[in-house]
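Subject: mismatched residue count in predicted assembly?

I count 639 residues in my input, but I want to confirm that the predicted structure covers every chain. Input:
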Amino acid sequence: MSASARMESPPATTDLRRALRTALPAVSLALVVAAIAWLNPRAISYFGFTLMLNLAIPIALATMAQMFVIAGNDLDLSIGTFVGFVCCVSATWLRDEPWLGAIALLGCVALYAALGALIYLRNLPSIVVTLGMSFVWQGLAILLLPKPGGKAPAWLQAIMGVKPPFVPFPIVAAALVAAVGYVVLMRSSYGAILRGSGGNAVAIERAGWSLLKAKAALFALAGTFGVLSGMALVGITTSADANIGNGYTLLSIAGVILGGGEFVGGKASPVGAVIGALTMAMAASPLLTFMRIPPDWQVAANGAILIIVLAARVLISRNGERR
Amino acid sequence: MSAALRTALARPWIWSFIGAGVVWLAAVAFTGGYGAGGMLTAALSLAVFTVIVGIGQMFVITLGPGNVDLSLPANIGLASAVAMKTMAGDDSLVALGLAAALACGLAVGVANYVLIWALRIPPIIATLSASFIIQSVDISYGRGLQIKPPPGFADFTNVQLLGVPLLAILTALLAWVAHVALHRTIWGRSVMAIGQNIRAARLAGIKVEPVRFATYAFCGALGGLDGALLAGYFRGANVDIGNEYLLASIAVVVIGGTSVSGGNANVPGVWGGALFLVLLLTMLNTFGVSAGVRLLLTGLIIVAVITAAGGEKRTR
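Triage response: the counts match. Full output below for your records.
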């Protein structure tokens, strides 16, 4: 690390660019919050943030799940229907038969790990495997809960309804999620191996680490955060629906990219992912409602924000990586 | 004889047709032979829509890792609304409506490429952002749209010759043209070369960017055409009309033996894959399974097929 820095000694502008690039997710979020504050100052309050960021917790958790998959150069197109399935399990089994529900959810995590192993062993395209799995999760969810209904366990509702002093719960929860993701992926020694498996798989393998285990671990982490996302979602909505999480697949990918993640090279940022998810959650509806933009165009705003942030990123790192 | 059989089995697309045959036989066995021909006719008329977008997706995927068009469902939805509005239920405006849908799809494809090129972002995220915006345009533009297709156009999408849908024949023709374009034109061969090794292709003097531009525009145009035809077949435009074609377009490409990591494609497999998917649904429907089981089995079979087909050999 230090040797390469001494040899290349990049000019100061590159450092500035890198710093700007790193700060971009936070800047985007700050801009969205500033816009909301300007349009409706009363929204910037304990109560306002609690309302506006209510759904941000499950989105942040799903984004974190997606980030682990993307860190390994894969993509999970099934996370949305998986979150929906977890919602259905939480609103039925976990409430009525807590043991059965817990075992089912642990089984889901194990299945995710197995999928990662399968993708590695057969060198399968993760896009296709997870697209297929999205049908599986949705099918299971419909089988479990053919009609919207069920009821979230009381303890889940209680957790999601916590009102900590001074700082709204969604912000506390988001900080916690970001911290956990940061410690696991960026600070733990095995996290470095996981990132390496996405960045330079050959080097990791030659260093004696099992790429199979790394891939399975990344998917197991994704499954774990997916389960948490579904539980958080049903704790907020109190009842479940097989289609409840469908939009999360694209939101989670957008959140990771918004947060500075890259599709290749094991570049991922847990803190950035959570910030990206918060930006998406705030920009998607509260901001637009305050701007009196009709609901028709709210989806477009998601796309526009993505494009604007990506364009800003290109402008910042003009002569950065060339594709 | 066995040598001929062996060359046939070596074709990557043969398995999709074998799979389609197996599920068809299973369905026919279940009904005791009843409706065997009708099933094929129905499968052909539904497979057409998957084949059209599948061909576009195949060219895009062949460009190499990361190339995939996620905007197809939104594109199809918007084009279906544009087609119905332009045709306005009038038979004399059918050609104009088709042209409008094609132009709309083409514009989406061009927009996708502009995003990829200008922002230098992976096509997945570019087409994803584009699809968000297209979807909104469609919701806003097609709100409360209840224009029926012109009767002549609706009949055209449903007409059959000796049990074979006319659209299927025309789509077979389109597939043949795509096959020739893939293997015999500079564009098609450039697409494959880029997918095999973009650096080598560039060094060999292939104009990579124009080829990528043409490929995304081509895929977008096919999406637009598909939207118009779907609106004719299902008697009206709908925001969600294209939703199932995201998975379907990717799945038929993969099931058909085209390499997901690019550089190696074949058109017949798109037909085989589409027939397999449609007949699979037909089979599950004749078995009378519930919607949940149908989704579950569809997903499991797709995962099983891709696992059996296996990925590329690790070259690194």
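Chain B has one domain: 13-27+34-309. Marking this ticket as 'not a bug'.
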